[in-house]
Amino acid sequence: MRDPLSVLTDAFTSFLFGKVETTRLPVRTSTGQAQAVYLPTAAPGLGDSGVIIGREVYSGKGYIYDPFQLYGQQLPAPHWLVLGESGNGKSALEKTYVLRQLRFKDRQVVVLDAQGEDGVGEWNLVAQELGITPIRLDPMAALDMGIRLNPLDPAITTTGQLALLRTIIEVAMGHGLDERSGFALKVAHAYVNETIVDRQPVLTDIVEQLRHPEPESAEAMNVALDDVRAWGLDVALVLDRLVDGDLRGMFDGPTTVGIDLDAPLIVFDLSHIDRNSIAMPILMAIVGVWLEHTWIRPDRKKRIFLVEEAWHIINSPFVAQLFQRLLKFGRRLGLSFVAVVHHLSDVVDGAAAKEAAAILKMASTRTIYAQKADEARATGRVLGLPRWAVEIIPTLTPGIAVWDVNGNVQVVKHLVTETERPLVFTDRAMTQSSADLADDALHAAELEAEERAAAFVEHHLGDSESTVA
């Protein structure tokens, strides 16, 4: 029996505010039954326009991604960073992504292929399927009239040529050019461009001019001719490596005729270059500037520039600065830069930490495959990933990754079609006789991923029984 005061209070409250809602007792039930009352929900996707990557692990929805479609609405920049240890599916993702993008007629892709086996790059099969001949940069082949790229190609502006020469020298020397060396290089470059008009100027011409500067060069600055020669000596020695050293043949002649810059796919095969030598960042710099001035054009095409082993770029301050400039074309001329890196620590703790931070900031899309727990935590701190994503990264199985598209974070399983499979799985262990084993392994990975996802969701929802009000 309620006391009179409570009855009077309820009546007065009902008169002022309307009928008081009836209090409902809690119902104790299991999560299996409660899911019929509280229907499952999933985060919104990225739209239905673009290329399909696979499906979201938790919701089962198809996952579609295209930086050109999302740019300006959901993405501030179209650039993409792919992280993860070897053997987790980065390579398969890159290749299928490119193949699917090339189904659009206004797409064009350049790949810097730094890996390979059996004497060819990893992208060789994809190129063959599309009828493309890779541009194989090989010092030994170059000596026998192989592929050459000329840093002094007239297709590159005079300013671009000088910037490229400076970058090559600074990468090789490991420090910036001082004012005197820079002046000697500038004078030699200007003289070569002014006097050689009947052919393409080449690096040998620059080296020769640095060794034997013209008297006019010294008179212009009111210094002794011997001083100008001394200022340019170190520069000449560095460039001589491209002319007569271990990189000779690839850059010391006119650009090879017949390189098709209008092909839908352009593959620079760097697999014959030692990835740990100074040659790799020098190659990256030369190819980057050459493409900037000969490939990127205001013709309404959407271009993708994919770089394997990209830490060679981001870990060198001078090359990183060059590529920072290249990335800015993304907004103006429709360029999406895709950097593939094994470990984020390779770049954020390197010599170019400042430049690396700037490039990472430009990458609005991040895809992270399985990493060890310590590496995952470090990656999460740098990229600002949510806690749940950091916790799940070490548990990911091959083919599954955490995708962060400007704050929209999903766990996505990459799907490979039967047509794509022989093109993207190029490991020699993936032979025809082991195809069935590969399918079984893939199926097992899918089941394991689903079990992990269910366990993860159950852990975050609580115990098997919960109180529903």
Automatic annotation (TrEMBL):
Recorded superkingdom: Bacteria
Coiled-coil region list: none
InterPro entries reported in the protein's UniProt record: P-loop_NTPase, T4SS_component
Protein known as: ATP/GTP-binding protein
Native source species: Streptomyces cahuitamycinicus
